[in-house]
């Protein structure tokens, strides 16, 4: 069991501006500006071509038909058909390019978030639910898909169409144009209010989706299913999930209906505008005002109707953008997380380390609010030597060992490998130098061979077998129907605890690190299985610098040096015989361990 740690929380952001500011979102599209420029050209060309159709219609009604000019009529009709074809072709090309750009931006976001999470400190993952992380990548980025892939293009397309249409309407009749646009400022104000309302609801909805994803991840894992069924809590878990889902139903409905009536009112008013235009033209004609030709009136109404779709779409796009800002904000929160463990600009690299490890006046605490987990630790492990760290639960054993591979960084003092501060080493060198075998063995849902090759992707079949033999697991693998192609199952549940541990040891043997960290690698095993795993560990440890954390003291008696930690400080140190002669804390731990073994 590891010591309790304070909750991990993201660092506070500087300033008061929301992270999803428009300029930052626009920078996501910067690498694709050439393609977006092409989309802009297509949009502009499509808008210009589409507004030509009403002018052709006016000429048909006012000139070609009244004057009986069949040739002109055919030419104008053909022009209208060509206009429709060209507009459609431009629209398809525009959709293809914009969707490709949008999907590339989505890919960039997903990759950036995943890469950022790979760099986060271990404390982040110990205090963040897996479902929350998955929800950010799947639900939040997935929820932005429509915005990223189509909204930006829709915004440009509709804005261009609105401008081109308004200019064409002014060219036909400026008085009717003013009548058509009188209510536009009111519509913009309404859409902005609706957008702010949906943005708030979207933030709540995404948080609820993250909570539900976390529930699913935890309760539908192999461990969760086993726990739920053996505790008789399956029905309770289902009821809990139903309650979470019910909350999401309400938020989804609120999100869909937010401002729906107000936006519908805008649509109704704009759809009624042709009637207003006909009415205004009729009143002007009856009262002796300026007359409008039938062709001009029909062409104007056609333009006004053409204005309806992009105008309403433009207002709706504004609402969608407001909604998507909440999603961008959640993604940018992850991208802005502070990465505490970083690689120096000019790091030190080793071809092959000798393996001397030193802890020089090491101090460590998880955050400023908590007390020191480790204090004034001074230890030296010669290259090829062995150090055992023992002590009660919560004394800082695992934390101390995790400082060597930089799963945590010291807050005082330093840890060195061959005299070089581990913070000065590049990550690849550190990963090649330090191998970790922990109690909690993790295996991917893949074949045995794939799990082993995770340590060395180019390993040959012979190397896999050699490593498996050294880990005392080859015979078992060979006895399986599919041998090394056998799927290990979710988290390796098709294998026993001892078998998984030996697979982990084989994986580390393939990695061949000069320094080995054994973090309670046999504490959860029965005596017989422990003996088999210990044989594998002994083979793995030969010739390597080994740091062992253990509850069962029988596994560390032969260590060159044994250190007893208590409350993060060195209480005792020496060989097994020296510490027994002291008759102190180590001797008490040995007696307790012996009593527990006899009782078992």
UniProtKB/TrEMBL annotation:
Coiled-coil segments on the chain, per record: none
GO biological process, one term: oligopeptide export from mitochondrion
UniProt key word Nucleotide-binding: yes
ABC transmembrane type-1 domain mapped to chain residues: 37-323
Domain ABC transporter residue range list: 357-592
Gene3D superfamilies in the record: ABC transporter type 1, transmembrane domain, P-loop containing nucleotide triphosphate hydrolases
Keywords linked to the UniProt accession: ATP-binding, Cell inner membrane, Cell membrane, Membrane, Nucleotide-binding, Transmembrane, Transmembrane helix, Transport
GO CC entries: plasma membrane
Membrane topology: Multi-pass membrane protein
A molecular-function term among this protein's GO annotations: ATP hydrolysis activity
Keyword Lipid metabolism attributed: no
Membrane-spanning residues: 36-57, 72-97, 146-168, 174-191, 263-281
SMART domains: AAA
A Pfam family assignment: ABC_tran
Main location: membrane
SUPFAM superfamilies, per the entry: ABC transporter transmembrane region, P-loop containing nucleoside triphosphate hydrolases
Family stated for the protein in its record: Belongs to the ABC transporter superfamily. Siderophore-Fe(3+) uptake transporter (SIUT) (TC 3.A.1.21) family.
Name recorded for this polypeptide: ABC transporter ATP-binding protein
Organism name: Streptomyces beijiangensis
UniProt lineage: Bacteria, Bacillati, Actinomycetota, Actinomycetes, Kitasatosporales
């Amino acid at each position: 069991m590891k010591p309790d740690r304070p909750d991990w929380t993201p660092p506070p952001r500087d300033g008061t501006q929301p992270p999803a500011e428009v300029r930052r979102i626009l920078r996501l599209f910067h690498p694709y500006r050439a393609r977006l420029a092409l989309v802009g050209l297509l949009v502009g060309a499509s808008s210009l071509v589409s507004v030509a159709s009403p002018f052709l219609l006016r000429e048909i009604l006012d000139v070609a038909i009244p004057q009986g000019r069949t040739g002109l009529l055919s030419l104008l009709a053909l022009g209208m058909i060509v206009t429709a074809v060209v507009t459609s072709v431009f629209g398809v090309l525009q959709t293809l390019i914009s969707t490709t750009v949008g999907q590339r931006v989505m890919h960039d976001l997903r990759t950036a978030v995943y890469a950022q999470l790979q760099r986060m400190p271990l404390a982040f993952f110990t205090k963040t639910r897996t479902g929350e992380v998955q929800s950010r990548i799947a639900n939040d980025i997935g929820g932005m898909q429509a915005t990223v892939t189509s909204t930006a293009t829709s915004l440009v397309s509709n804005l261009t169409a609105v401008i081109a249409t308004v200019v064409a309407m002014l060219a036909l009749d400026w008085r009717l144009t003013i009548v058509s646009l009188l209510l536009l400022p009111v519509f913009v104000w309404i859409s902005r209010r609706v957008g702010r309302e949906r943005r708030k609801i979207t933030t709540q909805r995404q948080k609820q989706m993250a909570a539900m994803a976390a529930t699913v991840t935890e309760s539908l894992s192999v461990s969760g299913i086993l726990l739920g069924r053996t505790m008789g809590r399956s029905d309770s878990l289902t009821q809990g999930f139903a309650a979470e889902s019910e909350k999401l139903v309400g938020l989804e409905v609120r999100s869909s209906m937010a401002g729906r009536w107000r936006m519908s009112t805008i649509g109704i008013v704009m759809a009624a505008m042709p009637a207003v235009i006909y009415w205004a033209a009729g009143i002007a004609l009856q009262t002796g005002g300026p007359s409008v030709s039938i062709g001009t009136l029909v062409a104007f109404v056609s333009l006004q109707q053409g204005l309806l779709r992009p105008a309403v779409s433009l207002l709706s796009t504004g609402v969608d953008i407001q909604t998507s800002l909440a999603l961008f904000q959640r993604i940018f929160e992850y991208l802005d997380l502070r990465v505490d463990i970083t690689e120096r600009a000019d790091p030190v690299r080793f071809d092959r380390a000798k393996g001397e490890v030193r802890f020089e006046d090491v101090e460590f605490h998880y955050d400023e609010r908590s007390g020191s987990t480790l204090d004034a630790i001074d230890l030296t492990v010669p290259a090829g030597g062995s150090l055992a760290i023992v002590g009660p639960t919560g004394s800082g054993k695992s934390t101390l060992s995790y400082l060597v591979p930089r799963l945590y960084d010291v807050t005082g003092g330093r840890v060195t490998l061959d005299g070089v501060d581990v913070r000065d080493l590049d990550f690849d060198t550190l990963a090649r130098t330090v191998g970790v075998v922990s109690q909690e063995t993790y295996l991917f849902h893949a074949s045995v061979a794939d799990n082993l090759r995770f340590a060395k992707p180019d390993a040959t079949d012979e190397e896999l077998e050699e490593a498996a033999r050294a880990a005392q697991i080859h015979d078992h693998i060979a006895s399986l129907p599919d041998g090394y192609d056998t799927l290990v199952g979710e988290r390796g549940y098709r294998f026993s605890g001892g078998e998984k541990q030996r697979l982990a040891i084989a994986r580390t043997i393939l990695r061949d690190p000069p320094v080995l960290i054994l973090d309670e690698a046999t504490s959860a095993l029965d005596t017989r299985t422990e003996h088999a795993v210990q044989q594998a560990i002994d083979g793995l440890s030969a010739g390597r610098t080994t740091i062992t954390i253990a509850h069962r003291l029988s596994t560390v008696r032969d260590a060159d040096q044994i250190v007893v930690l208590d409350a993060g400080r060195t209480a005792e140190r020496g060989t097994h015989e020296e510490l027994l002669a002291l008759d102190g804390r180590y001797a008490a731990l040995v007696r307790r361990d012996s009593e527990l073994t006899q009782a078992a």
